[in-house]
Amino acid sequence: MTLLFAWLIVSLWLDDDGYLLGLDAASNLIIHEAGHFLFSWFGDTLELYGGTVFQLAVPLLFAVAFTRRAEAQGVALANVWFFQNFLNVGALHG
Fold first, then answer.
1. What pLDDT sits at residue 30?
2. For residue 80, what are the domain limits?
3. Structural domain tally of the chain?
4. N or C: which end of the chain has fewer CB within 10 A?
């Protein structure tokens, strides 16, 4: 687990484009797009914001689950995942 944290911290430090290898390409994109679909049932506005809401909610749910199990390393990793999402949410494209 220590090596995973070391890799993650170094990767985030050296990252220059806001997209972390693997995490963004696979999980965050899929979760974001699933949020649009899931929130589309509640109207156009929630469909629009649903991707971002779900992208931020999933890591928070993981953090809560790890907290309830008293797994500090899992909580830390879920929090890094949560805050790493803000690199994409706050990015201006275009």
1. 87
2. 20-89
3. 1
4. C
